[in-house]
Amino acid sequence: MKHMELFNEESLVADTVADADADTFEKIYDYYFPRIYKYIRFRVGDPHLTDDLTSQVFENALNKLDKYNSQKGKFAAWLFAIAHNTVVDYFRKKKNNLCTYEDIEKLIDTTFDVEKACIAKEFRTKLFQALNSLSERERNIIGLKFWAGLTNRKIASLMGLSENNIGIIIYRSIIRLRVALQDLGVNTYE
Predict the structure, then answer these.
(1) What do you get for the CA distance between the two ends of the chain, in Å?
(2) Rounded to whole angstroms, how far apart are CA atoms 88 and 115?
(3) What residue ranges define each of the domains in the chain, with the CATH number in brackets?
(4) Nearest residue to 151 (alpha-carbon basis) of 24, 4, 8
(5) What digits encode the pLDDT tens for the residues 70-98?
(6) Cα angle vertex 49, ends 45, 51, to 5°?
(7) Which tens digit of pLDDT belongs to each residue from 141-188?
(8) Global pTM?
(9) DSSP-derived secondary structure for 2-50
């Protein structure tokens, strides 16, 4: 999916910071929401949790917008850092909490075809097992590419690597994922 560019991003961010303008921030939100949502969905898997965490990311970004400094880096890198930290904080907190009745209740959904849901869950489980064979950096790059829909150039800018290096990392990671999935019994050519 090709994303259109956000025109005058830096001036839009600067205007939003200067005016503390929620209407101007809405343009930034509309542009980045799909990418942030897909990135978080890739990391946590649960659509309801993804909704909550994505909301937290944009709430934090709006509240901390005055702390953004374009001299230190691109706005996209700052926003994705907030998204990454939000996911890390969630998993850190979850590690220390027990599952509640409400958490279990959210898992119950009568609209799904049970067979399709089981097949999808099994594939997702194997995909995440295969993704665990990659390094944290490789998982982040794969997440930014395929779930957040960023270009190699944008990922390179965010990660401080060359565009060619990003392409090579993605290519090698996909090969490793394909091998890991085949080892788990998944036909990757279907």
Answers:
(1) 21
(2) 32
(3) 1-108 (1.10.1740.10), 109-190 (1.10.10.10)
(4) 4
(5) 778 778 888 888 998 898 888 888 765 55
(6) 105
(7) 888 888 888 889 888 888 888 999 999 999 999 899 888 888 888 876
(8) 0.56
(9) PPPP-TTHHHHHHHHHHHT-HHHHHHHHHHHHHHHHHHHHHHH--HHHH
Nearest to 5 by CA among 148, 154, 159: 154
Q: Say if residue 84 is exposed, middle or buried (CB neighbours under 10 Å; 0-12, 13-18, 19+).
A: middle
Q: Where is 84: in which H helix or E strand? A: helix 75-95
| DSSP 8-state symbol, 73 | S
Rounded CA separation 17/21 (Å) = 7
Kindly report the number of other CB atoms within 10 A of residue 18's CB atom: 11
Residue owning tokens 């303008």: 21
CA 94/CA 81 separation, integer angstroms = 20
Percent of the chain's residues with pLDDT above 70: 74
